[in-house]
Amino acid sequence: MAEGCPHFLKAFYINSYQMNFYLGQHAHDLRFAVSIRPTGSDKLVMLHNGPTEDDQVLAVGEKVGWFPQGHQMVNDIILPPLIGGWPDIITSIMDPKQKFTNHWYQFSMKVGEGETSHDEKFEWRPTQGNEIRAMFKHAKGFKLIRMEAEGPGKGRGGNRRSREIGETSDGKEVVAVWATKKTLLPMPRSPLKFELLGSGKTGELGRQFGYMALITALEIWCFQVLKVHDNGLPYIPHQ
Length: 239
Fold this sequence. Notes:
By secondary structure, this protein is mostly beta strands. It has one domain. The chain is built from three helices and twelve strands. It has a twelve-stranded antiparallel barrel with strand order 1-2-3-4-5-6-7-8-9-10-11-12. A hairpin with a 6-residue loop joins strand 8 and strand 9. The longest helix has 18 residues. The radius of gyration is 17 Å and the shape is globular. The C terminus is likely disordered.
């Protein structure tokens, strides 16, 4: 049975010659293996439910369309059934958006469990704000916004200095973040940290949500940090 996604994960690199890596809270407790495919492959990212690439595929990010803003991705979360039956599969499409040099990414998915489940919209926005500053000394990354929920400041929002942590400038709730170190050039085996926040952490959004947040975060990280571009090759780290 697949449990909910861990609230905090970071990347560990074992093989210096591959782009693939592992996720866990500690180096001695690797929970997932992440496979990154060449840009010519439709399946860009695969998340394995265990520390090896032979373990069950838990989530897949697949390129299905290209826009000037970037690739549209289809994401499949494949969870084993809670009690018998068929695997629990949920699919969502992530669309890239762009204004000038600013990129963001949107998707919708069914959240909650049972009769209370319903569709909600989410948006990954770039950030250098308070939610990720504890992750690295000089951090940059993205925050995942629950578009139909107010943040802990009751939706007041405002500038970064005055608003509540976990709330956006327009008053929305932040439910996940990912971050890396801010550098001028791509770093060999770039560091990555991922964290669920607010209702993304409490389980209110259902057991699929954390995995959807994670696979979409990994895709954006591939495009924004590893430089897996639409018409180029991924950045290959050197020794």
